[in-house]
Amino acid sequence: TVIIRGEHQFPSTLTIPTNHLQFVGDGNAILSTPVAGFTGTRLLDISGRTNITFRNLTFVARTAGLTAIFSSGQALSDIRVEDCTFSNASTQWDRGVDLGNTAATGENVYIKDSTFYIPTNAGGGTTHLGVNLYGIGHARVTGCRFIANGNSDTAGISIGETNHKSANVVVSDCYFGGMALGMKVEFADHVKLVDNTIENTTKGIISEIGTSAPNNNAASTDYLISGNTIGLAPTGFVGISLREVTAATIESNHLAC
Description:
By secondary structure, this protein is mainly beta. It is 0% helix and 57% strand.
């Protein structure tokens, strides 16, 4: 276990070198980037790691365009993020937690009771995200808050991605406020989105099909969308929209226009 006290500023990406580590904040523990001169596109790289925990930490981005916790291309498992905050300053992370595995063999991601501040810009789509999970099986995001500072180019959570299917993902008891899109699911099976609150959004919950070979128009299956409250912004136009999903249950949701 690594106990962190005070602020620690990194000049470049820190690649976590080994498995079975806990990074635990004691008091006001901050991991940050400098205002200028940071080398890399992410603060921490946990690609291929197993049993890594981040608890009670604040991640502060003083350089725009970065990701706080990142993995890609290699199997990872047993990753936990608990009671963390991802920037509450004038600069936010482009992505707070971005965990992917192109072989679709990532396992067991748990993100709990954390707050994500999400930046906006003049672009479109969902470039700026609180949490991005693709190629991950057995993931749970619960009790988190996703706060955006505008309805342009912002989303709370994205699950699955074109050729990298996710499965067995639960998002529950989370709050999403002031963003273009609350939750997006693309190419994922066995998904539960339950008891979440999405406010002042353009789109609440949408699912999309795989968009590149070999998964063009590939369907997803087994969705439960239940107990969610969705409040659309004045420019909002989609509460819940599913494409090419089989065995979907949508029940007991409340939509306010």
